[in-house]
Amino acid sequence: MTTTEMPTAARTDLVGLSRVALRSWLERSGHGAHERVVWTWMHRRGGRDFSGLAALNMPRDLIRRLTEEAAVGRLPVEFRHRSGDGTEKWLVVLPDGHRIESVFIPETSRGTLCVSSQVGCTLTCRFCHTGTQPLARNLTAAEIVGQILVARDLLEEWSLPGEAPRRLTNIVFMGMGEPFYNYDAVAEAIRVLMDRDGIAISKRKITVSTSGVIPGMLRCNEELGVNLSISLHSARDDVRDGIMPINRKYPLAELMAACRAYQGVSSSRRLLFAYTLLKGVNDSDEDAKALLKLLDGLPSKVNLIPFNPWPGAPYEPSPMERILAFQQILHDARMITQIRHTRGEDILAACGQLKTASRSLPQTF
């Protein structure tokens, strides 16, 4: 199959299946024992044409059944944009015609793929462009995993560990949607990504970002143990209520209690808090001091994010001198913090800018 083909309804798409589900499917024809070979071929080598399994001494009747009844689907990429700073954004088409965006951010020592978990978003955070796109539906585990497979296709890095350095090393669930409002599919996808016989991305290199959906945080703590990033953006309930309506359901006191209980939080493994600075809204000295009080005693790191404007945005970015003054207050209190360098702003790929409007941008590949 090509990167623009998806399996027909009569075929089972193996992408997104758990190992248990894959084994169950293979066992129907008595080939359950070959599950590991098929899994590794698909997720580590990027195999799509089942005839390639012949080189791995797979039974002919298994290859025939796979060819007739199964497929390794690929999500078509409608547009591919590259920023002047090397960031790439891909407009990916789902089987039902909906579109989502994924962003690849290359750095010297790593490459991070920002994936989506929903089509649109239900949270309506007032500073976020994605929040202006109504929720259409949740993504399936196959569609989430499919974003990583497409990335590895485009980056041309299908190889066994040790054969060549990976460009894609980290996964962040910071694209379209609230991951914990699609918990089951996100969790299944993460298990596929972490499997050592497949894509083999360590849980320490996977980060799930949430606006504070506490039930999902609790489940993630118990079941996955990946890194957690909290979209905080204010340490005051009155301000957070206005810019993030979810705070009315899960206010700061409850959110902080869940954060303090998160597994593995220590001086060596800190929770990440994202704080977008909005001019005249949450960027005062008093706001910085409130943030220090809120996070007191909690091993944490604060990412200060300059607001990335989008057409019709109701806010303005804080001036850089105000951002630096805010950061200095945190530094003086020995809070670990950094100002996140904006990447991909020229192609609307920066934090808070994702929305499936890529067709209005000129394709750059």
Describe this entry's structure for a reader.
This protein has 365 residues and is α/β, with parallel strands linked by helices. It is built from ten helices and 14 strands. The strands form three sheets. The protein has a ten-stranded mixed beta sheet, with helices on one face. Strands 1-2 form a two-stranded parallel sheet. Helix 4 crosses helix 5 and helix 9 packs parallel to helix 10. The longest helix is centred in the middle third of the chain and has 15 residues. The protein is elongated and about 70 Å long. About 3% of the residues have low confidence.
Write the layout of secondary structure elements.
Layout: E1 12-13, H1 19-27, H2 35-43, H3 60-69, E2 70-71, E3 77-82, E4 88-93, E5 99-106, E6 111-114, E7 118-119, E8 137-138, H4 141-155, E9 170-173, H5 183-194, E10 206-210, H6 214-223, E11 227-231, H7 237-243, H8 252-260, E12 271-277, H9 285-294, E13 300-306, H10 320-332, E14 336-339
Parallel strand pairs: 1-2, 6-9, 9-10, 10-11, 11-12, 12-13, 13-14
Antiparallel strand pairs: 3-4, 4-5, 5-6, 7-8
Helix pairs in contact: 4-5, 9-10
